[in-house]
Amino acid sequence: MVERDYRTGEAPLFRALYVRQTWGGVPRNLFLINVLTCVFAVIILGTWFIGVVGISLHFLFRYFTSQDADFFDVFTHYLRSKNYYRSE
Known about the structure:
Blueprint: E1 22-23, E2 26-27, H1 28-45, H2 49-67, H3 71-81
Antiparallel strand pairs: 1-2
Helix pairs in contact: 1-2
């Protein structure tokens, strides 16, 4: 094993500490919502077309995530607080 000297204050920073966790290029919670919604819709409605819509939504979400990793966090924050900033 290689001995490393970190007395200068430099230490390795692992990528998992600063890169957002994604499944298939989409944030994990959004991926699970998309998959579960599509599976339940296919089972209840009995049509496979919902799966095509779900896959196309996945690629749309993946595009948004590739442009800005915090897009969905900012968007959900906006949806939760839009009435707070409403001007009359």
